[in-house]
Amino acid sequence: MYIGLFVNITSRAWALPILAHLHAGIPGRQASLLAATGAGRTAFVQSMDHLITIGLVERNPGHGHPLRPEFRLTQMGISAAKLASQINRVSKEEDQGLLRRSWTLPVLASLHTPRHFIEIKRDLAPITDRALSQSLKTLEARNWVCRQIDELTRPPRSRYSAVSTGSIISEVTGSAVTFI
């Protein structure tokens, strides 16, 4: 999967949980997916509309009521759902809030090897300095990212690497996401 698509998917908080639950076999009806994800109705609908727009999910023709449609994964959505399921499997329940944040997973995907700030920013082209900095600080506070100062260079530069749960998620996403 290309990093641009991955960033696009993670831009909606409930997109990956929806994909993971569809992959796990939860029926593609709104009520069952709402119950499984725990999302609010408005956020769920926005995430589902987003997944339909980018072509990962489609309405299941001939099934469901117009007010209670049924959904299914597209061919492209199957691979994205598999990745979402793997991420969901290696993370804990208390980690779900952090995983739903926009830049958490793309930053971890970029940290498949130790990187400098500018290298991460280059991998995730649309990210701003502020968003990247806040994401790295949040991940460092959770002990998913380790920041080391390289004092041999002038000026000294920070090098970031994924550790503990962040490392596991980074391995899963790093093997599935390609950077250009």
TrEMBL record:
Q: Does the keyword Nucleus apply?
A: no
Which InterPro entries does the entry link to? HTH_HxlR, WH-like_DNA-bd_sf, WH_DNA-bd_sf
HTH hxlR-type domain boundaries: 90-180
Q: Which UniProt keywords apply?
A: DNA-binding, Transcription, Transcription regulation
| Gene Ontology MF term list | DNA binding
Q: Mind telling me which Pfam families this protein's record contains?
A: HxlR (PF01638)
**Gene3D superfamilies the UniProt entry points to:** Winged helix-like DNA-binding domain superfamily/Winged helix DNA-binding domain
Q: Which PANTHER family match?
A: TRANSCRIPTIONAL REGULATOR, MARR FAMILY (PTHR33204), TRANSCRIPTIONAL REGULATORY PROTEIN (PTHR33204:SF18)
From the Swiss-Prot or TrEMBL record, give the protein name: Transcriptional regulator, HxlR family
- Which organism was this protein described from? Phaeobacter porticola
